[in-house]
Design a protein that fits this description.
285 residues; alpha/beta; UDP-N-acetylmuramoyl-L-alanine:D-glutamate ligase; nine-stranded mixed β-sheet; 8 helices; 11 strands; globular; binds 3-hydroxy-5-(hydroxymethyl)-2-methylisonicotinaldehyde
Amino acid sequence: MTGPKKVAAIHDISGLGRCSLTVIIPVLSAMGVQVCPVPTAVLSAHTGYGEFVMRDLTDYIPAALSHYKKIGTRFDCIYSGFLASSEQIDHCLDFFHSFPMALKVVDPVMGDNGKSYQTYTPELCARMSELAAVADIITPNLTEAAILLEEKYPEGQVTAASMKSWLVRLSQKGPKIVVITSVPMSAGGICTVGYDSERNSFWKISGEYVPISYSGSGDMFTSVLIGGLLGGDSLPIAMNRATSFTQSTIKTTYSYGTHWTDGIMFEPQLHRLKADRELSDYTIL
Ligand code: PXL
């Protein structure tokens, strides 16, 4: 009766490289969720290209928020990701505080493979914990989890015990649910690990190792996770849905041999995210 769930997605839009809004909009739309993009920056290509042009939209975010508040917009979820300046932390906090009923999801986008992204200043990384503190759910990759905890990035494989301790320590910063992606576990494979602090339950989804890390994988994972949770999935089912879709699109991409900066070739598989049943089988009376 209420129509699709509505998500305000506070992320950049990058022309080349399939990440952030160019992944989030198609993925959530395919899952029957409406995306209201709140762009943090426009880039000709994501930062992994090394050379790109960028327009910072820091001023735009509070203006858009005022507009949405003025017209009484309601969001079911606020989902933040790649930010262009440390002031945007304050703007995201304003968004979260303005819609207290919305599910607050923070993907603390800061880096990958042990390194922070080119445009991320130490101040922006340091302030990311402020967003994590007000979130219901955070979805760092292993690099971002290490930055949030001020830990060294673990080279090589990690144990289940150390990941459990990281999950608990991250949730003690505020979020009820913590999901860490791209975790090379000593038991084998690349895993997604999750913790629900209210139930004190820990989950692990195992994935196969693929020797390339494509841009936008984290955006895809968190978007499918949100689509699943808004559709009623339990946490482990949403984690499973997000891990298996991301993994299978990564494997498709790998088979074509494209460069990692091109991102995940998800277009051929997008239909798999749609509802099982087409809901257009009515007539007008
Ligand atoms: O997927 C993370 C991401 C989002 N947006 C931009 C990026 C990256 C990672 O490189 O550069 C602009």
